[in-house]
Specification:
This is DUF4367 domain-containing protein. Keywords: Membrane, Transmembrane, Transmembrane helix. By secondary structure, the protein is an alpha+beta fold. The protein has six helices and seven strands; from the N terminus they run ααααβββαββββα. The protein has two domains: about 5-80, no CATH class; about 85-215, Protein Transport Mog1p, Chain A, CATH 3.40.1000. A seven-stranded antiparallel beta sheet has the order 1-2-3-7-6-5-4, with helices on both faces.
Length: about 220
């Protein structure tokens, strides 16, 4: 399997969903391992070589099928699971309490995913005064974050929404963008991208500064 094909699969995985990258990595491993085994068999003087090779292809097909179905169905069930506060404290996050509000607890929901090249967190919680909703995408690879940002901008442009870069007092290297409707902000650094919705009774300056302090300044 060529490096070009692997990069294409990797790009597709990041564009679709972070969780899909897990499937891609496993599939690449299965294909490479199967090719190695088949080539090994072809170079050996083994009886019924053709039948063994056909069996190897069958095993590969079944392995791919069960891998994909298992991860898809597992993800379906995980998406509707509300994690405990103990689990929530293990991830880098921003809580509704950081905006002088109190969580209703039973409406708290988040989903975290991690792959060898990127991590993703969705957080949603309703408080007594506001609703907090944001997403974090981060990677130690600058190009992965840039790719995710450009993909997002292209998507919103296609549906007729423009993003405007905001001038802020944040350090150099931290850029802030707001959609033209003023209800969605994107804050991005070399290794992290945060998308957050605006909140009632929370000013733009406070929202941006709190996000920076909690998610970027550490």
């Amino acid at each position: 399997m060529s490096i070009v094909l692997f990069i294409a699969w990797l790009s597709f995985a990041i564009e679709s969903d972070v969780s899909i990258l897990k499937i891609v990595i496993i599939l690449v491993f299965l294909v490479l391992a199967s090719n190695y085994i088949i080539n090994f068999i072809k170079n050996k003087n083994i009886k019924n070589k053709k039948i063994i090779i056909q069996g190897a292809y069958l095993v590969l097909t079944l392995a791919i099928f069960f891998t994909i179905t298992n991860m898809i169905f597992r993800d379906v069930f995980i998406k509707d699971y509300n994690y405990s506060d103990k689990m929530l404290n293990k991830v880098d996050n921003l809580k509704i309490e950081d905006f002088n509000d109190v969580s209703k607890e039973d409406l708290l929901y988040f989903r975290a995913e991690k792959t060898p090249v990127a991590a993703y967190l969705y957080y949603g919680d309703e408080g007594e005064k506001n609703y907090l909703s944001y997403e974090i995408f981060e990677s130690k690879y600058k190009w992965v974050v840039e790719y995710n940002f450009n993909k997002r901008i292209k998507f919103v442009n296609k549906i007729g929404v423009e993003y405007i870069e905001k001038k802020t007092s944040l350090p150099k290297g931290i850029n802030v963008y707001m959609n033209e409707h003023g209800h969605r902000y994107t804050i991005i650094s070399q290794n992290k991208m945060v998308e957050i919705s605006s909140m009632d009774n929370v000013s733009e300056e406070e929202l941006i500064n709190v996000v920076y302090e909690k998610l970027f300044e550490k």
